[in-house]
Amino acid sequence: MSKIIVAHSPDADDIFMYYAIYFGWVGSKKIRFLNLALDIESLNEGALDSKYLISAISFGLYPFIRDNYALLNTAMSFGNGYGPKLIKKKGKILKNNFKVALSGRWTTNAMIFKMKYKNARIVYKNFLEIEQSVLSGEVDAGVLIHESILNFDSSLEVEAHLWDIWVDFIKDTLPLPLGGMAISRSIPLLRAIEIEEILSNAVKVAVNNKKILSSMLENRVRVNKDELDTYLNMYANKDSITLSQIQLQALNALFKIGYDNRIYKDLINIKDYLLPTTYKNYRFS
Predict the structure, then answer these.
(1) How many C-beta neighbours within 10 Å does residue 108 have?
(2) Which of 141, 170, 199 is the last residue of a domain?
(3) 57 and 102 share a domain?
(4) What is the spatial distance between Cα 234 and Cα 211, in angstroms, rounded to a whole number?
(5) Does one domain contain both 186 and 279?
(6) Which of the listed residues 142, 170, 198 is the one where a domain comes to its end?
(7) Same-domain pairing of 152 and 69
(8) Are residues 138 and 68 in the same domain?
(9) Coil, strand, or helix at residue 223?
(10) Are 89 and 140 part of one and the same domain?
(11) Which residues fall within 8 angstroms of residue 86, CB to CB, at 6 or more apart?
(12) Do both 206 and 154 map to the same domain?
């Protein structure tokens, strides 16, 4: 039995989508899955160094790692009318060159933020430190991600929703691509397809048994029961099982605005970077 580490973030949606495997509801006789939880920027930097065979990543990173990783067709998070929030102290007027804390250079929210606020002075923080950095006055503002968007200090207010910035950039209301799973191209194709099927099944089982699994996660996440339910409805739902056509369009829209703003050297079509699952049918036909 081979061992495969799945690296994911410690936020509730990633844990939720993986833990059907952790609890033994889904698995394989050939593969033993182990998990490693790290903050999203550590995962992004690890993917840049090809450190993990399977890793959660920010979608904004993907064009930079496309030669070494394929994008999995499952376990992804999109915002649909919501997403990361730029917060500040109530009543504070932000100058053109305000100082802001972001959760990492390679995150999708950082990409969108930098296209909008070109003169902002950026510092990078662990996502768990951003709210306190604003409260202490170390920075003028910060972009909250993960569960932090649901419940932050009452002395803070939202300056801007990244969803609104996204919609303004693409001139459409496609869902906002936030994060997905990438798999190393060093894994043989048939094995990679098998892994994708297992992970997809794990997400499906989790979504279909949400009430049971959520109760098992309550002591493993940073939010209360009601907030967990809200958060999973947003980021770990039926739309996380398999990439839809509209999600594929959204990813291409993300890569297009990144290309237009000279973040990416090349314009890619995400369909060229998914696992060719039809190979399995041809191989055994």
Answers:
(1) 31
(2) 170
(3) no
(4) 15
(5) yes
(6) 170
(7) no
(8) no
(9) coil
(10) yes
(11) 100, 113, 141, 142, 143, 158, 159, 160, 161, 162
(12) no
pTM value > 0.85: yes
Same domain, 74 and 182: yes
> Across the chain, how many H-helices and E-strands are there?
11, 11
Sheet arrangement for strand 156-161: 121-124, 99-102, 141-144, 85-89, 156-161
Nearest to 193 by CA among 14, 19, 28, 1: 28
The answer to whether the CB of 199 falls within 8 A of the CB of 75 is yes
Residue 107 to residue 179: CA distance in whole angstroms: 9
Own/partner contacts of 41-49, CB < 8 Å, gap of 24 or more, are 41/103, 41/104, 41/105, 41/106, 41/107, 41/124, 41/126, 41/127, 43/7, 43/8, 43/9, 44/104, 44/105, 44/106, 44/107, 45/106, 46/7, 47/182, 48/106
Q: What is the dihedral of CA 150, 155, 157, 159, to 10 degrees?
A: -130
SS3 label, residue 56:
strand
Residue appearing with tokens 């999109």: 78
Residue in 266, 254, 268 with CA at minimum distance from that of residue 60: 254
Cβ distance 117 to 96 under 8 Å?
no
Task: Going residue by residue through the chain, which has 285 residues, state the pLDDT in tens, using 9 for 90 and above.
Answer: 789 999 998 888 888 888 889 888 888 888 999 999 999 999 999 999 999 999 999 999 999 999 999 999 999 999 999 999 999 999 999 999 999 999 999 999 999 999 999 999 999 999 999 999 999 999 999 999 988 898 899 999 999 999 999 999 999 999 999 999 999 999 999 999 999 999 999 999 999 998 888 888 777 677 778 888 888 889 889 999 999 999 999 999 999 999 999 999 999 999 999 999 776 666 655
Q: What is the tally of structural domains in the chain? A: 2
Query: Which amino acid, 143?
Result: V
Q: Which domain holds residue 152?
A: 85-170
